[in-house]
Amino acid sequence: MKENHMNKRQKLIPLNKLNLTDRFLFEEVMEDPLAHQEALGIILGRDVPLLTQNEAEKELRISSEARSVRLDISLLEPGIPDYSQLNESYLIMITPFDLFGRGKYRYTFRAVCEEAPGCILEDGATRIFLNTRGTNDDEVSQELAEFLHYVEHTTDEAAEQAGSERIRRIHDRVRKVRNSEEVGVKYMQAWEEKYYEKEEARKEGMQEGREEGRTEEVIQELIKGMGV
Which residues contact 157 (CB under 8 A, 6 or more apart)? Predict the structure, then answer.
């Protein structure tokens, strides 16, 4: 039992070694409105007003299955408190691989009519897929390329080498999260829960396999008894 516990611990990546492509770290860092604002400013290429409850609906979702980071953001123009007047919405996904295989850092999609490609639905909805391993540096801002590299390699060195003050401010938040004892405990608990969920699923799968095997044996015995 003790040996199994030690093996389990060895699989745990220390909190201070996680990159922003990790579900837990990204979520904790982006809980800070300022860090969230800085990231959006880099991605959208413009200053984004500080998001408040009255100005924006914000949802952070990270898909571990797709190994991606996802941000769903709906923005109001400054001074407009009515959600019915939302005029911009973004679904932003960051992946440590090229989803479309074209070497781009950024892929931007808007609704286009299939029957009339030149007809664009002006509903304000935009989907942006960001690839941390893009190669078209001459087509995007240096800050975006540095940020995407930093997301996959979230180190002091990467933050220092970046020419962006916004990236450095995001890294300040990363360091606070990594050095927080409270967050460390939360990380351990989340990891333990995930580990035991996987173990339970594995045991259930093994049990189902054994039951299927026994069922097959019974069927074979019945077939033999029937002389088939």
Answer: none
Residue 3: per-residue pLDDT: 47
pLDDT digits (tens, 9 = 90+) for 64-78: 344 555 565 555 455
Nearest-angstrom CA–CA distance, 38 and 23: 19
Same domain, 163 and 83: yes
Is pLDDT of 57 > 60? no
- Strands in 68-75's sheet, in edge-to-edge order, are 56-63, 68-75, 88-95, 125-131, 106-110
64 and 166 belong to one structural domain: yes
The pLDDT-based confidence of 174 (bands split at 50, 70, 90) is: very high
The two most distant CA atoms of the chain are separated, in Å, by 83
How many angstroms from the chain centroid is the CA of residue 121?
A: 27
173 and 185 assigned to the same domain: no
Q: What is the DSSP letter of 46?
A: S
Q: 10 lies in a domain?
A: no
C-alpha angle 9-95-28 in degrees, rounded to nearest 5 = 55
One domain for residues 59 and 165: yes
